[in-house]
Amino acid sequence: MNKERFLACFEKIKTADNILFATHHNPDGDAVGSICAMMELAKNLGKNYSAFCADKPPAQFAYIPNQENINSDREQLNFGKFDLIIALDCGSLQRTGLAMEIKNRGKKQFVVEIDHHPKADDYSDLEIRMPECSSTCEIIYLFIKENKAKINKNIADCLLTGIITDTGNFLYPSTSERTVKIASEMMLYGAQYPRIFEMSMRNKSLPGMKLWGKAINNLKINTEYNFACTVLSKEDLLECSADDSELEGVSGFLSNLEGVNGLLLLREMEDGTIKGSLRSNKEKIDISKLAMFLGGGGHKKASGFKIEGELKRTNTGWEII
Ligand SMILES: [Mn+2]
């Protein structure tokens, strides 16, 4: 089934006059890696294309080829001129940053979705969704191979970035034998693993590390469910003078705690909400069910939710009020 979709998507790219690639706001390594890999592919095929992300890629991804050509200004985009729109790693229509444009698209505007998040909504004309893949970059690799398109060093750097960052350097349960094989193949194409690791993962600042320390310090285990919980309050963020982006990867790291069934990290946000991240490394546990129960969603081993409220310390732990 995916084979047909891979072929259909490639055909669309080959016959399109003007392609728009889009990825989610606050782009992570997989978002930047996947959009830049597709830009490189379109460039090599001699296509007209643009790329859109509501936020500029963080400085740590400055080494990724083509990222300097990602447009983050919706006004400048002129959405009407594109006949093919490919959304990458977005998870939902909202996260494309182009929800209105895509919803109200013209008859001749075709939308493809390439994503490894579980389905949230139905907005594309062609959906390539593979939640079993570690990253959208892994799907793009399969897509390129199926269509016998050329992989060059630039594409290899992009795809390896997405794989390393979305698997926490091959630590998360989403890492499969295939993920590792693809990564090593990318090195054969010239991707520089140590450099990519250095730039994309080894980038914690001192305030960031202190904030991770707070998350470790607040860790408690609920013995009834053998479940680890921790919290980060607004004060914690303020005290460390760290910004939110420093927390990338913290729940994955905390889920390394030995023996527990899973982990919950609660973070108090500026807008009066609490963001929950859930992780599990246990084969039999589908943590996304808990996330869905709480109004969120995600992968079986990594999911999240958002609720209104504030955190209050009690004698036994924390309460959401
Ligand atoms: Mn991803």
Structural write-up:
The protein has 321 residues and is of the alpha/beta class. It has helices at residues 2-15, 29-44, 74-77, 99-103, 136-146, 153-166, 177-188, 193-200, 206-217, 234-240, 250-254, 288-293, and strands at residues 19-23, 49-53, 84-88, 110-115, 126-129, 220-222, 227-232, 262-268, 273-279, 297-298, 302-308, 311-313, 318-320. It has a six-stranded mixed β-sheet with strand order 6-7-8-9-11-10. A five-stranded parallel β-sheet has the order 2-1-3-4-5. A hairpin with a 4-residue loop joins strand 8 and strand 9. Helix 2 packs antiparallel against helix 6 and helix 6 (153-166) packs antiparallel against helix 7. The radius of gyration is 20 Å and the shape is globular. It starts with a helix and ends with a strand. The structure holds manganese (II) ion. Residues 30, 89, 116, 135-136, 166 line the site of manganese (II) ion.
